[in-house]
Amino acid sequence: MIAAPIARPISAGTLQRLLKQHAFFKNMSDAVFNQAQRYAHEVECGPETTILQHGDTSPYAWFLVEGSVSLAPPRGEPHLCRASDPDAGYPIANLRPCRYTVTTTLKSRLIRFEQSYLKRLAQPSKATRFSTANTQGGGSWQSHPFAVEVVRMQQQGEFKIPAMPGISTRINQAMSDANFAATDMAKLISADPAIAGRLISMANSALFKRHEACQSLQAAVIRLGLQQTRNLVTVLATKGLFAGQQSWIKQPLQATWRHAVDIAAYAAVLADLTPHINREQLLLLGLLHELGAVPILEQALKFPSLQSAPGIIDAVLSNLAPELTAITLQKWDLPEFADAVKQQENWHYDGPGKEGQSKVNPTDVLIVAHLHQRMKAKNLTGMPGLDEIPAFQKMAALGLTANVGVTILEEAKQELAELRALLA
Prior knowledge:
Strand order of the largest sheet: 1-2-8-4
Oligomer: single chain
Radius of gyration: 25 Å
Largest sheet: 4 strands, antiparallel
């Protein structure tokens, strides 16, 4: 039987003091806490007090502020969550029916909320003010003429899709020959000295577990293998698409490329938790997942007023670029990547894995990479709790927790620094 600890009303000031550092409430206003007190109670429990049982349909959400709790699944080892852990920044075991039996392991202090109220805390986007020519406009980003034009062009297929770089096309054609070898690959790549030099640097980097340094292009190709060499040449050549030679779009193009590099580094490190997923495949997916931003930003040049409305550009790229990226990757004969980029920030995505293997697939890893990038930027407002993100939960079964996630962010620093240096 579930113990019934006493729940006491809590003041708005105490609520804010206890929860303002929790990720879920990080950017909430004083007004939110003033309203929230009507839906919240403070609960103190002794050790070994059961808060939730597996299968529970309780209407309450729980936040841990002192002590620790054990989350025990029906099968497998229980997970300990301490008040100081990143997990405690979100509602504990918030899915219903509950997936765990949650029991205090120490004297603990928790805040109990009505779940219906928490769901209302996800605020709709604020109206945006913007200028077009000599007039003032307002409303959501979708009403800006730039967004309207991007949608129209997508629907009518008018965007000029970025072509695969010439060197990649030549390599793909040459690899159709069954006798194609490392010497042939090296000869093709040597026609572009800049790419050849960076490829050798990549082969010698920690990203590819270097041992003895490669002294020649052919040695680098042999170490990497033909398929991986082809993929990396595509990445190195693609970087030029984000160079931005025209006017003010150079900055957003370069910012988009830096974001792709960050996601690629996180995805590569996360892939190490999933033995059946190739880390180099995730590195490539991360680096190519923003290709759709290139033609959209080129179209932005027709709207000079966007220089003073970066929020509109960010919203258009976030919401509309993935579809264009998917079209580009289909054209580049990378259909498995095309499906993944459409879901890159769909926190509720729950797609199948490979038959007979873990349910984790490359899309899951890409989503969790974006989650870690948000964690690093402390940009989690309005996001669901970790136990409500299926991709994270799939990887949790392989050992990923919020604490491990913090470690991954640290481990990714070296790979991120190397990638930035190699792809700058």
